[in-house]
């Protein structure tokens, strides 16, 4: 791989890691880049998980160092997401991706208006204690995990919506828990893609360098600036990703 392609892959990875940490939708950048390098869509989907895994290791560590996450308390909703991610990865080749993209685009569009209409819900302090999960929380996170196992695009937004609106997290802690959940289920999904020979490890590791750097910078930014500022990044990311899912770009 030529040096300028390596530099481009790392640069795109940095942007994706930063965006994923503050909101979501970074895979909208990395998947097209991987396919631009010549990887088939299925291999690009699997290869992206290498960078996602390492990105979330770096992000979770940074959030934990800044006391924005309690792994013991905040792991309750990760279990159903992990369980859902495994079948989601297995059926990745069988579902109509375009239909799923349109459905997620509608959901993200609704989420944009919910952020606008209920801003205080997304700006609560990190001191607030999230509600204890009830049965329907586990069901929702199972299906979010299934979607995340299928294709990573948009998963961060869905997790944020479930954590903030469903479980009472603020945007900063919600982003931290989001990364912890994705970190826990990604190895299972990645194993499925490895089993099906759909991972280019070299490209994934190069991409991961940028993703990890972006995640560290994004986590520090989120903790320093707080939920009110992060909310505007979330709104911008929601608009861009929704338009991209509707093939406006």
List the helices and strands and how they pair.
Layout: H1 3-22, H2 27-36, H3 41-65, H4 78-90, H5 97-117, H6 119-122, H7 135-150, H8 155-166, H9 171-195, H10 201-245
Helix pairs in contact: 1-2, 1-10, 2-3, 3-9, 3-10, 4-7, 4-9, 5-10, 7-8, 7-9, 8-9
Query: Any idea what the radius of gyration is?
Result: 17 Å
- Give the low-confidence spans: none
Arithmetic mean pLDDT: 84
Got a strand count? 0
Shape: globular
Helix content: over 70%
The structural class is: mainly alpha
Order of helices and strands: HHHHHHHHHH
Distance between the termini: 28 Å
List keywords for this structure.
10 helices, globular
Give a written overview of the molecule.
The protein contains ten helices and no strands. The mean pLDDT is 84. Helix 2 crosses helix 3 (41-65), helix 3 packs antiparallel against helix 9 (171-195) and helix 7 packs antiparallel against helix 8. It has 249 residues and is an all-alpha fold. It has helices spanning 3-22, 27-36, 41-65, 78-90, 97-117, 119-122, 135-150, 155-166, 171-195, 201-245.
Short description:
With 249 residues, the protein is mainly alpha-helical. The chain contains 10 helices and no strands.
């Amino acid at each position: 791989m030529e040096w300028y392609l390596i530099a481009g892959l790392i640069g795109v990875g940095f942007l994706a890691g930063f965006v994923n940490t503050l909101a979501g939708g970074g895979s909208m950048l990395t998947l097209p880049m991987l396919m631009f390098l010549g990887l088939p869509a299925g291999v690009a989907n699997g290869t992206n998980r290498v960078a996602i895994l390492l990105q979330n290791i770096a992000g979770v560590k940074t959030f934990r160092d800044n006391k924005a996450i309690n792994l013991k308390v905040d792991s309750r909703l990760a279990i159903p997401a992990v369980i859902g991610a495994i079948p989601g990865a297995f059926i990745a080749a069988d579902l109509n991706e375009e239909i799923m993209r349109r459905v997620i685009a509608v959901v993200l569009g609704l989420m944009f208006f919910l952020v606008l209409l209920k801003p205080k819900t997304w700006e609560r302090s990190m001191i607030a204690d999230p509600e204890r999960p009830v049965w329907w929380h586990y069901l929702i996170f199972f299906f979010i995990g299934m979607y995340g196992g299928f294709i990573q695009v948009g998963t961060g937004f869905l997790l944020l919506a479930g954590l903030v609106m469903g479980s009472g997290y603020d945007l900063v802690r919600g982003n931290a828990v989001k990364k912890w959940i994705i970190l826990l289920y990604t190895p299972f999904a990645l194993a499925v893609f490895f089993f099906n020979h759909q991972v280019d490890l070299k490209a994934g590791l190069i991409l991961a360098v940028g993703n990890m750097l972006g995640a560290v910078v994004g986590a520090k930014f989120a903790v320093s600036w707080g939920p009110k500022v992060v909310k505007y990044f979330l709104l911008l990311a929601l608009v861009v990703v929704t338009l991209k899912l509707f093939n406006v770009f």
